[in-house]
Amino acid sequence: MNNLAQPYPISPEAKAFYQENNYIKLKQVLSPEEVAHFSEVISAEVQRKNTQEKLIEERDTYSKAFLQIFNLWTESEEVKKFVMSKRLAQIASDLMGCEQVRIYHDQALFKEAGGGITPWHADQYYWPIDTNNTITAWIPLQATPLEMGPLEFSAKSQQIVFGRDLQIGDDSEVQIKQNLRVNNFEHVIEAFDLGEVSFHSGWVFHRAGANQTDQMRKVMTIIYMDAKAKLMNPKNDNQIHDWNTWCPGAKIGEVIDTELNPIAG
């Protein structure tokens, strides 16, 4: 079980696809043994940290979407091995074309049986980062068929400015969906094989469907940024919150080099 310590070859064609579409799905990034092991480890941490007490039908759209636990790498040495692994960091840096990447934060996204949609959104609305060289690894901890709610992408939609100022929720789902349809962007929705991982940029629009199965949809995500990324002056309250939470002590105009943002790999 040493895939995570080994390089994963990214072809010139794969790099070009990512640069054009701002997302890519890669097969066999993790071995079945690695998926099983880290599914068990991360699930235990999510169960330990979960504070959600409301029934699904009592929650708003965002809260119905998933159980959300952050920065597990800071609390578990085994999760840290996963989040800081050479393989995932190397893929992220190769796709973005930068020398090294830092961790912005990790995020377990567990969509319960019967869990609702994840509305259309662009992640970087929340991030006070001065570069578009940001990328999220979306790592299913099981094979993820369509009825379980895999991640969906709007290919090439990073070039769209409309919707970048919308917080994730009912409004973003309706308004972004309508705009993407009007502009005829390709909507990519596919199942994920066991060990398959996707990577998407901070500005590409994406969503996920409801979990229509009786099983938990378990996903671990890792957000990386170019190791040279600097903190920008926050543009909204969410970015102020992210500054204080995920990169405390970072200074505007300087490289985001804090204890919570180490170089990965």
Automatic annotation (TrEMBL):
<dbReference type="InterPro" id="IPR008775">
    <property type="entry name" value="Phytyl_CoA_dOase-like"/>
</dbReference>
<protein>
    <submittedName>
        <fullName>Ectoine hydroxylase-related dioxygenase (Phytanoyl-CoA dioxygenase family)</fullName>
    </submittedName>
</protein>
<dbReference type="GO" id="GO:0005506">
    <property type="term" value="F:iron ion binding"/>
</dbReference>
<dbReference type="GO" id="GO:0016706">
    <property type="term" value="F:2-oxoglutarate-dependent dioxygenase activity"/>
</dbReference>
<dbReference type="Pfam" id="PF05721">
    <property type="entry name" value="PhyH"/>
</dbReference>
<keyword id="KW-0223">Dioxygenase</keyword>
<keyword id="KW-0560">Oxidoreductase</keyword>
